[in-house]
Amino acid sequence: QLQENQDEIENMMNAIFKGVFVHRYRDAIAEIRAICIEEIGIWMKMYSDAFLNDSYLKYVGWTMHDKQGEVRLKCLTALQGLYYNKELNSKLELFTSRFKDRIVSMTLDKEYDVAVQAIKLLTLVLQSSEEVLTAEDCENVYHLVYSAHRPVAVAAGEFLYKKLFSRRDTEDDGILKRRGRQSPNANLVKTLVFFFLESELHEHAAYLVDSMWDCATDLLKDWECMNSLLLEEPLNGEEPLTDRQESALIEIMLCTIRQAAECHPPVGRGTGKRVGSK
């Protein structure tokens, strides 16, 4: 009897889905399209056994191309709710491979709010599986740390930090208590210098620092470590910094001190609503 009741309810749900949702997710009114996507996101979270599969997910994937920003935004927030739950990751693999390129392209959306949520979604995808995003996908997000729009840059800074800086080789207490050149931050500071030099935007260190300030404050304020990398002799087997790398580290260090003292974003970085032309 329980099985019969469950079957009956699922048949009703299916009828409602086909009779209402399938027609209304393409409604002429953007607000109705947005409501449809928001609701299907809730259904997939609440009843993933029935709704979290590709025959339902495809509607969210298709709607990511909607011409209205508010609808695209609902797609991304619905997906964030799913990717946030690691237990659902296996059910999202096919969707990720099929629509990943679209999500990456949305990081350049003309609506800033959509671009921010696309980056946040990719950060969750990154945490669910390291292998899904290619080096090219990641680089498309990395360069946004230099964006003039601060929320986009901060979201990209968090993505960059999770990808390149959040791994610790060891959690041994002895290692974590070391300071200066021997601290765990030493390699992370070097990684920051290498990234800055590779990005070839050498006049924009203040933008990079500001982008990562919220998620990597402890690293960016480890001036003792930065000083020792500049002043002390390299450890055994350690590559010394080149003159160019030392200059970049000094530039980054100055920007972190200025950021700590002044507590505001660099000139030219704001929080306006729309992106101008390229």
From TrEMBL:
It comes from the Eukaryota. Residues 21-106 form the SCD domain. This is STAG2 protein. GO terms for biological process: sister chromatid cohesion. Belongs to the SCC3 family. One of its GO terms (molecular function) is chromatin binding. One of its GO terms (cellular component) is cohesin complex.
